[in-house]
Amino acid sequence: FGADTTRLIILADVAPTSSRNWTEDTFPGIFNWQNRLWLTVSKFIDIRKNIDMSDIGNVKNKDKLKKDNDYLYDSRNFYVKGVTFNIVGSQQLSVAISKMQGLTNSIRKVVLDCVGHSKEYEIALATQIIMLAPLAPQFASELWAGFCSAKYHLTGDDGIFDFSKDVLEQKWPEVDMEYELNLTAS
């Protein structure tokens, strides 16, 4: 296993204050997650390679695309909030990794039309890679290089990401101002 996989398994296995009982049984979960991320970026590249820019928006089921976009918007904001809190606030990296795995699952649930035609899909995938970067920098850099190599990007002109810079130089994702956060008072 590589350095990033080993680092992720150490961070994901238990909380930093807990004792570690090392076992190789915990590797498959992280390794499978990395594989799903790699396949997701590969699928993104392949689908974007086979779609012409003039075809953007020409989808068979616009209602399903809208539903998937709304789902990705909600998922991305929910997981950005959770990952950020668990890295910066509580420093529970195992929980942050679990939240990132949740975002990966959300990204992989949408239909293929969403991969090729959705700005929200692109934002969610880039956000996933950026949040992974501090914990697995080499792996995230490879994912980012692949992501940036896609034939076209729908977020290119709006300044959300800088495709000329490495993933470690990207701004940390933030929850959108329009996203409705749950407020709990006790």
UniProtKB/TrEMBL annotation:
SUPFAM superfamilies linked to this entry: Anticodon-binding domain of a subclass of class I aminoacyl-tRNA synthetases
InterPro entries given in the database record: Leu-tRNA-ligase, M/V/L/I-tRNA-synth_anticd-bd, tRNAsynth_Ia_anticodon-bd
Methionyl/Valyl/Leucyl/Isoleucyl-tRNA synthetase anticodon-binding domain segment(s): 91-179
Pfam families: Anticodon_1 (PF08264)
GO molecular function: ATP binding; leucine-tRNA ligase activity
Single biological process term from Gene Ontology: mitochondrial translation
Broad EC category: ligase
Protein name per its UniProtKB record: leucine--tRNA ligase
